[in-house]
Amino acid sequence: MKFLSILLGASMLAIASATSSLSRPNIIMILTDDQDVHMHSLDYMPLLQKHLMHEGTTFTRHFCTIALCCPSRATLLTGKAAHNTNVTDIITPHGGYPKWVSEGHNDNYLPVWLQALGYDTYYVGKLFNQHDVDNYDEEPAKGWTQSDFLLDPYTYQYENAHFSRNGGKPVSYKGQYSPDVTTEKMHEFLDMALDKEEPFFLGVAPIAPHANMIPAPLEATPPVYAKRHAHLFKDYKIPRTDNFNPDTPSGVSWVAQLPQLNDTVIDYNDEYQRCRLRALQSVDEMVESLVHRLKAAGVMDNTYIFYTTDNGYHISQHRMHPGKECGFDTDIHIPLIVRGPGVARGVKSMAVTAHSDLAPTFLNLASGAAFGGDDIVLENAPSAVPRLADLDGGVIPLLEDTQPSDSTKTEHVNIEFWGNAAGEGKYGFHGDWGVINTTVNGYVNNTYKGLRLIGEGYNLYYTVWCTNEHELYNVERDPGQVRNLLSSSVLNGLTASSDLLRIAGRPLAAVLDRLDALMMVLKSCKGDVCRHPWDSLHPKSRSSKVPVVNTLVDALDEQFDAFYAGQPKVRFDKCELGYIPSSEGPQHVSPFGKGNYNAANDDQVRLGHWSEWV
Ligand SMILES: *[C@@H]1O[C@H](CO)[C@@H](O)[C@H](O)[C@H]1NC(C)=O
Ligand SMILES: *[C@@H]1O[C@H](CO)[C@@H](O)[C@H](O)[C@H]1NC(C)=O
Ligand SMILES: *[C@@H]1O[C@H](CO)[C@@H](O)[C@H](O)[C@H]1NC(C)=O
Ligand SMILES: *[C@@H]1O[C@H](CO)[C@@H](O)[C@H](O)[C@H]1NC(C)=O
């Protein structure tokens, strides 16, 4: 594989003709809706395990960067953080398909780029929320050779789906099971794609295991499953992890106010998750039929299959009703499984990856480059295709010999969210849901920044909320994220030698100063800054006297204590429902060595100045 990268200096044409067919592989992306890792949904998909997990690599540290369908899909399809797409909600004014279009993304996203690289592009299933039976033909989704989109308000009606083929009039599939219809359509598109010479991209986005949404009056019920799966999982229960309906409330903001769930709700929630697992069986069967079809066509050795979802899901964890939109791992830690030529089989990758990495990774594959580094790809691609510097994600190291990948690609994931949160299911509804208005029906003040940071000897989640509440979890020692190290009641219960406080060998305050500064960089980052955020704090210098900082551990060197303590801290002036930077406090860090941080602040160092948040 090494030789491929040498060819990158040559033109695209030269690459295409000089390398094997591998340089133009087919790419298939299966995108489920709201699938969890935490409740072990993957364990209940035997065909997925057989055909993808055993034959490919499971990325065990994959995250979405915003735990809500439409914004997460926008990030996935652009390779840009939500603060750069500014598609931050499922409906207008801050999100939904109309916002996607008005922000200009419909002219400049993955399928458009893939077509410019000579790919045929196909998509079946759900694209975005608020892509509906009224607006579908006003500004059709661009970039697709063939498409068949689910449209609102029928998207989440499992037995009353409406699809629009290539921008045509919506067709009702009343009485048919939506995920099975998606599978049938996938096969139609496969037949077309396999008939042609061009390499293809195929997106398959069934709605399972999302809630079933019935309009007028609006109701979110457990997902509907196909009758053939009704007998399954009767004894399944949601894992009783320590974050399952805990005796002591966890989290901050609205989460900390939640009452404990009673047995009626717990029973309902267990059945809710059983319904989700059953709904996923249709997807499981789809995976097998897909692999069989590719094998029969003889293209399996030139095709990558990516299996993932838009965001995770919680049910009963932290006392929450079914839903997403939180920064806990239940909601952001999601499946990513990749099978394809050169991808290690039956392996778990420890690389830290995010949804913003998928578009760059697809482009990298499609542009015929080798993979595994940042500074590759696209330099010779047509102008319609972005350069890596235009995207916020990086290229996921897929190949066997790039595992485990280098640590600079493996440390941080920038998490963000704006707006309110909503519960789903019978008890998750707050009052009258005749209309969706989370100010009235949901949990307010769910705007926050999050930083997931994983490296050798540390595994952390740090958040700053719009209420200026803070959280820090030592996920290594507290995987359920129930012991917020910035809560005085948690801290008071710990001894100085507690395992929870062991973070890369430095005191909590020193760690916090670094996390906060890194978050300050990431919350408004673009391009290379998002990939290499420490460089903004420690600009690379030719002088060998300036220490190199690439990771938290590098930054934790005592010589930087005063520097980090003096950085402005992330805070909000106000809880907004969308990305309004003027309400989001300081925006900039002071780079090291520039001498412009305020040394007078050094006195505030250590727990002293953090304690005002606790
Ligand atoms: C993001 O969009 C909102 C409207 O949804 C707008 O008010 C805001 O100014 C935009 N933010 C940026 C940074 O452009
Ligand atoms: C359990 O909680 C639900 C939701 O708050 C409530 O509607 C129900 O009445 C409660 N059941 C019992 C037996 O207390
Ligand atoms: C939601 O309800 C709030 C409070 O009543 C109101 O101010 C707001 O305009 C409503 N939003 C929408 C989109 O209807
Ligand atoms: C939401 O946050 C605002 C600050 O922006 C605060 O004034 C308000 O009390 C909070 N509301 C709730 C219900 O916590």
TrEMBL record:
Residues 1-18 form the signal peptide. It comes from Sporothrix eucalyptigena. It holds the Pfam family Sulfatase. InterPro entries: Alkaline_phosphatase_core_sf (IPR017850), Arylsulfatase (IPR012083), Sulfatase_CS (IPR024607), Sulfatase_N (IPR000917). Keywords: Glycoprotein, Hydrolase, Signal. PANTHER family: N-ACETYLGLUCOSAMINE-6-SULFATASE FAMILY MEMBER, SD21168P. Its EC number is 3.1.6.1. It is an enzyme of class 3 (hydrolase). This is Arylsulfatase. PROSITE patterns: SULFATASE_1. Belongs to the sulfatase family. It catalyses: an aryl sulfate + H2O = a phenol + sulfate + H(+). Residues 25-368 form the Sulfatase N-terminal domain.
